TrEMBL record, chains A, B:
Gene3D superfamilies: 1.10.1660.10. This is MerR family transcriptional regulator. The lineage of its organism: Bacteria, Bacillati, Actinomycetota, Actinomycetes, Pseudonocardiales. One of its GO terms (molecular function) is DNA binding. The keyword Transferase does not apply.
DNA sequence: CCTTGCCTTGACGTCGGCGTCAAGGTGGAG
DNA sequence: CTCCACCTTGACGCCGACGTCAAGGCAAGG
């Protein structure tokens, strides 16, 4: 198949596919007319790339998975390098979740504090919550 | 004070402060020499900007907080527009946490599945764990 | 023959939040 | 007078993953 068809099957664009090729992730044969020529194994590569980038992997991080597939392994994560990326990524995501959770908690608190004055705009809750002079 | 001092007090750079000014977030007076001149209320603005961007707010999203402070309110979130941003941001963060959690769970599963073949490379665990032929 | 549609390469644009360099002004210390 | 540190404006660089436009080739259909 040609690049347009592959792009449509993979749910992406021809530009993205050429970009993957430029990054060395998706090598392409050429037909007599000089057009890029792909088969189903290439669709498989693109699917792997897309599903990984779709959950937050950088393109570079998909490389071990793609090379694993190109080496004939049944899945992209059948190789140690891929598993290593899994582990790094899992640690990153865990950390990110922790930080986002902390942010969420702070946002909830701040939101609760900031909403009160609008529901009771007249009565000040007596002077001194400990926030008036935070810096120095 | 001048821009270098403000930058140091706020823990940032002169370049960042000029950028904030260019975005209309941090207006600056000028002294006789044409130098930007700031006071403690400006430090307050920069502190507000930094604490918000530090937890993931885009610069544009800090605008209501900064304008709220400049309008003489005691805190950046004393205004309805700021509270509205809080709410939007909280929803975004909640959603982000959900998605990241889903990603984490998928990563854990995939990692568990991918690690097994390396821990038992020789003895197949009797034919049929459901992974040998996942696709087609 | 002309249009249409697919393909090619090349190259610049996008977004955010600055970093970094260039070229020059200003005032104080030695 | 020179050096130094601070300031000014202007403008290009960066990162990632492409979008978009330009200019052109190749084949099929009316």
């Amino acid at each position: 198949m040609r690049i347009g068809e592959l792009a449509e099957l993979a749910g992406t664009t021809t530009r993205a596919l050429r970009y993957y090729e430029a990054q060395g992730l998706l090598p392409a044969r050429r037909d007599a007319k000089g057009y890029r020529s792909y088969d189903l194994s290439d669709l498989r590569l693109v699917t792997e790339i897309r599903s990984l980038t779709g959950i937050g992997f950088a393109l570079e991080e998909t490389r071990p998975f793609v090379e694993c597939l190109r080496d004939g392994h049944p899945t992209g994560d059948s190789c140690p390098a891929s598993v290593a990326v899994y582990r790094r990524k899992l640690a990153e995501v865990d950390d990110l979740i922790d930080r986002m959770t902390a942010v969420r908690d702070r946002l909830r608190d701040q939101l609760a504090l900031a909403e009160v004055p609008f529901s009771t705009p007249v009565c000040a809750t007596s002077g001194g919550s400990g926030l008036e002079d935070a810096d120095g």
